[in-house]
Write a structure and sequence with these properties.
25 strands, about 425 residues, about 25% helix, seven-stranded mixed β-sheet, single chain, alpha/beta, globular
Length: about 425
């Protein structure tokens, strides 16, 4: 099962997977589980074997999870399954007609099928000082290790971005005893992914844990000579700090595909089977934009383990002759302090929200409706509501808001209207 090669010719794989993260690794695993016996290679920019990224901003930075426990599979698994790992390698161009990719080091690899699972790169700050020593993202093991290595001597940390990454990093750094200022340019944290009630709850929680959380506040410069000494804000005030962590989203890593005439704007566009418009080229995970029934058919990108895994499974089935359209239910989670947030569905565009339970009790849910249909649920320390809401979201159930708010009745027993 070794890949074909000859002097002067490209190495050839039946399936070449670009990106050795969650989606790419799971695509290779699923291909083998579906009985695919052709040659497979995973091309990854990092030198690490495939590992889980979500714990980097939580358990890994806290020291609660050792590195080996982040590996998607033990190191020996890949050789046992005859999956070649081509690590520390960056694909710089794709030739669709020749079915080849070129790496930064000049090597060329041919493919029968190409699965693009390259994810994305942290979106950098565009202000002066963004390149100073002490400015970090949280995307890779190297990022997390650099933060941990730099914490000695750091008393104050500024976090730019009030999404999941920023909030999780704030919780970890408070547990590590650092003074934390969190800066969000929008009027509230989690503004793009959750409703007002959840935002207000998490803002209060972080402030109660000592985070100096400021919304509606932009960054105009990172100050310092060689390393960070502070962050200058739009109101001209200065936040003194010795480290800055930036969590303002990712830029989808799709440049070579777009240059090869794949369709896409925010990521690369795929159809219901995760195919790009380029023959024999598929895309999955954070970089793939697809039409979602949970967004009323709008083309969206989802950055989640669930999406990466389910898209990987979709492609593996299609390649092995059992195509099924991608229709997985979106779900997400976030751990902050002693709070476990579980989300199902997509709340964007909701026109009504229903609070179920009491946030003061630190166990509640927010249910989102649009046109009377249940479209999403955020559950905080409320696993039962999360599990039962999932089925209702998938159904697009219509339930009276007063019934949804009644915690004396399980969600699964509520009458439809």
């Amino acid at each position: 099962m070794a890949p074909a090669s000859a002097e002067g010719l490209a190495m050839q794989y039946d399936v070449l997977i670009v990106g050795a993260g969650q989606g790419g690794a799971y695509a290779a695993i699923q291909l083998r589980q579906q009985g695919f016996d052709g040659t497979i290679a995973l091309v990854g920019r990092e030198s690490e074997p495939p590992y889980e990224r979500p714990p980097l901003s939580k358990e890994y930075m806290l020291g609660d999870k050792e590195w080996d426990r982040l590996l998607i599979r033990p190191a020996a698994f890949w050789a046992d399954k005859q999956i070649d790992l081509l690590l520390g390698a960056d694909v710089v161009s794709v030739a669709p007609e020749a079915r080849q990719v070129r790496l930064q080091d000049g090597r060329v690899f041919g493919f029968g099928e190409l699965i693009w699972a390259a994810g994305g790169d942290p979106r950098p700050l565009s202000c002066p000082g963004a390149e100073l020593k002490g400015v970090h993202a949280v995307r890779t093991r190297a990022d997390a290790d650099a933060i941990l290595a730099g914490l000695d001597g750091v008393e104050r940390v500024a976090i730019v971005g009030g999404g999941y990454i920023g909030l999780e990093a704030a919780a970890v750094l408070r547990k590590l005893g650092k003074e934390v200022t969190l800066l969000e340019v929008l009027p509230r944290v989690l503004a793009r992914v959750a409703g007002l009630q959840l935002s207000e709850f998490y803002e209060a929680e972080h402030r109660a844990h000592g985070v100096d959380l400021r919304t509606g506040t932009g960054v105009v410069a990172i100050e310092g000579k060689d390393s960070v000494t502070g962050v200058r804000l739009t109101d001209e005030s200065l936040v003194e700090c010795q480290m800055v962590i930036v969590g303002i989203g990712i830029i989808p890593a799709v440049g070579p595909l777009i240059a090869a005439d794949a369709a896409g704007g925010n990521g690369v566009d795929v159809d219901e089977f995760c195919r790009t418009i380029l023959p024999h080229i598929w895309a999955i995970g954070d970089c793939a934009a697809h039409a979602s029934k949970f967004a009323e058919g709008a083309v969206i990108r989802l950055e989640s383990v669930q999406n990466a895994n389910d898209m990987a499974s979709c492609v593996a089935k299609a390649i092995t002759g059992d195509p099924l359209p991608y229709a997985a239910t979106p779900w997400f989670w976030s751990n902050q302090y002693d709070l476990k947030l579980q989300t199902v569905g997509l709340s964007a565009g909701h026109d009504q929200s229903v609070l179920r339970g009491d946030p003061a009790a630190r166990s509640f849910a927010v249910l989102y409706l649009k046109g009377g249909r249940l479209i999403a649920c955020d559950a905080v320390n409320s696993v039962k509501d999360y599990v039962q809401a999932r089925k209702l979201v998938e159904e697009g159930a219509r339930i009276a808001p007063a019934d949804l708010a009644d915690i004396s009745r399980p969600l699964k027993e509520l009458d439809r209207i």
